[in-house]
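In response to the reviewer comment on reproducibility (Comment 2.3), we provide here a single inverse folding case reported in full, input and output, so that an independent group could reproduce the run without further information from us. The structure tokens appear first.
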């Protein structure tokens, strides 16, 4: 299998963003997760008229991957119009599986704004080890 570059993962997130259902915020988000075995799962934000049930792109991608049996991730790319950063809920949910994963924040044109890690985005995070 060919290895997935950062730009490939950003491109997958942009592709994912095209299905965003965002009539209330008009804020389009795409995310793409790279699994430990080299597969890519993309997702978009999906909004609700009652707002609270809205799901972010990161969790859409994560739930797709986890529901197909994946538990370890190398990286996630998130794309928005402004290179925005994952919300706290998504940080926590991704931290559950791979706190060390690389995080690429880019815009919808594919320009990289920041490369970081999930542990940097959620320092001193509460993780599964806390319940051991
Ligand atoms: N959103 C995401 O998809 N990911 C984030 O990390 C931040 C926010 C979505 C939720 C909502 O559909 C829109 O962006 C505005 O908050």
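Designed residues, in position order:
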């Amino acid at each position: 299998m060919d290895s997935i570059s950062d730009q490939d993962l950003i491109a997958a997130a942009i592709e994912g963003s095209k299905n965003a259902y965002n009539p209330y915020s008009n804020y389009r988000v795409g995310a793409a997760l790279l699994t430990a075995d080299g597969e890519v799962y993309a997702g978009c934000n999906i909004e609700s008229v009652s707002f609270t049930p809205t799901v972010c792109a990161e969790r859409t991608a994560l739930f797709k991957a986890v529901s197909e049996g994946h538990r370890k991730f190398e990286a996630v790319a998130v794309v928005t119009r402004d290179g925005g950063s994952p919300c706290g809920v998504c940080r926590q949910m991704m931290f559950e599986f791979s706190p060390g994963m690389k995080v690429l924040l880019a815009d919808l044109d594919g320009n990289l704004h920041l490369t970081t890690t999930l542990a940097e985005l959620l320092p001193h995070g509460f993780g599964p080890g806390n319940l051991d």
